[in-house]
Amino acid sequence: MAEDVARVFDGFDYACNKYPDRAAIIYLGEVFTYTRLKELINRFASGISELGVKPGDRAILYIGNSPQWVIAYLGLQKIGAIPVPVSPIYTPYEVSYMAENSRAETIICGDTNFGYALDVMGKAKVVKRIIWSNMADLLPWWKRVIGEIFDRVPEGKVKKGKDIYWFKDLLKSSSKPPEVEVKDTDIAHILYTGGTTGLPKGIPHTHRFVVTGFKDIVSRYSRHIEEAKHVFVFAGPLFHMFWQDMFFGTIIYRGNTAVLLPRGVGTDPILDSIQRYKATLFAGVPALYRMLLENDRFDMYDLSSLKYCWSAGDVLPLEIYRRWKEKVGVPIHEVYGSTEMVVYSVTDLEHPDPAPPYVGRAMPSRLFKVVDPDTLEPVPVDTPGELLVSCDDMPPGYIDRPEETKKSFITLEGRVWFRTGDYVKMDSEGNIYFVDRAADTIKYKAYRVSAAEVEAVLQDHPAVLAACVVGVPDPAVGERIKAFVVLKEDVRGVSAQDLIRWCRERLAPYKVPHYIEFRDALPKSKVGKLLRRELRDEERRRLMKKELKA
């Protein structure tokens, strides 16, 4: 990779110049070479500029894995605009807040969530335009026809009107977008992470910060992941920072190929793609590895081409690690990080057995400090403590959230550090071992769910007096979400299903509680602070009793 890469799209341009005819993306069988993808990105940049999008403007990417996501993300950056990637399954309630908070004037969505985008446009007055696309829009006509005949391409209803634009129409614009000076200190994107006060937090990253993270990946893996030699079956969501790191750091910046899979594909298409394309690289969250291993047809697929596999987003169970290594013949390596600070550490690819709880060593640009969470004093080697992370180009904090910023970004000895809330041990050689995480964040499958966000939605219900949300351990998904609810004194006839329905209308599906238990009161400290840990411990004791009886 060229050393002069300073902005996110510079690494892509490097690969385009060096490997113009190599496949950058394979999507639903269609090949997008680096040259073809670059032309589409430039045309999109021209088209969206003609709509009035200017340098510094923000645009929400409310769209699933597809070439359109990549085209929009890099096309916006080319003209100095700022992509705001969000989950395509977020509700209008959530996206409206993010649009207002990020001041996004544009939403780029799929036709399947167009109705939600239209709802957001009505709620968030800052939004001026919607650009929509169908997942098969960039496929040849005959593939689209076959997909429609066999009902394999989901389609949503789109309402034509003022300020509604078709993604494909923008690609008719010039392949020479306006020249805009984009500096490495400009914002590259805004990502959202779960908030502890009930609302997601927007974190802006500069091009320099993001590129440093990608370069860390390239540097750490350079001896093993060569340029233009690898195929990565890519099943993770591009709106998530981990997957962006892997997409750019191992694929785009190295001139390699991504077999990009749409959201929600089953385990058979993933296994078939590894076999069909002789994939050398693969990544997934622990829940996905479990589902793959439990597929009855797992042993029928030839996965011998795989060289390196990664896991992130949750604690990898040792049982899953061992089963995968035994069946596939390669270990699962860890990538450890957060939305705020991107990748902290990775396990070395030459490590013969990087089993959990080992999560590797610090990336070249990251500094670690393990401290007592109460005093912020360093703890002795091999002693559990909270992990603090720093680097030379720290994010400025959360958008319009000064209190949250003050809690998470602290200054020690003249340097700004990010409090991860995770508890780790670090040995004398700098190896990190994961111990535990911030208790008020629930890990369901690959998702991080803020207990406070779910509580805030429940407490908005007119019948609810108080609510407390905890994670209940479940080996299949990590944790399930359980809410303890106190109803107002005069309320009658409100059921758990009523509250779950209320949450479904206001939260992404993965944030909706699985269980609701009604209580007369919730445990609180002497100063009135909600004691989640008591309810969490209560649930764990209940589970232990069940296991003993079994």
Task: Please give a handful of descriptors for the protein shown.
single chain; 550 residues; alpha/beta; Rossmann fold; GMP Synthetase, Chain A, domain 3; 14-stranded mixed sheet; five-stranded parallel sheet; 16 helices; globular
Question: Strands, helices and their partners?
Answer:
Blueprint: H1 8-18, E1 23-27, E2 30-33, H2 34-50, E3 58-62, H3 67-78, E4 82-85, H4 92-102, E5 104-110, H5 114-123, E6 129-133, H6 141-149, E7 164-166, H7 167-170, E8 187-193, E9 201-206, H8 207-221, E10 231-234, H9 241-251, E11 257-260, H10 267-276, E12 281-284, H11 286-293, E13 308-311, H12 318-328, E14 332-338, E15 342-346, E16 358-362, E17 367-371, E18 385-390, H13 402-408, E19 409-412, E20 415-426, E21 432-436, E22 441-444, E23 447-450, H14 451-459, E24 464-474, E25 478-487, H15 496-504, E26 515-518, H16 532-549
Helix pairs in contact: 2-3, 4-5, 8-9
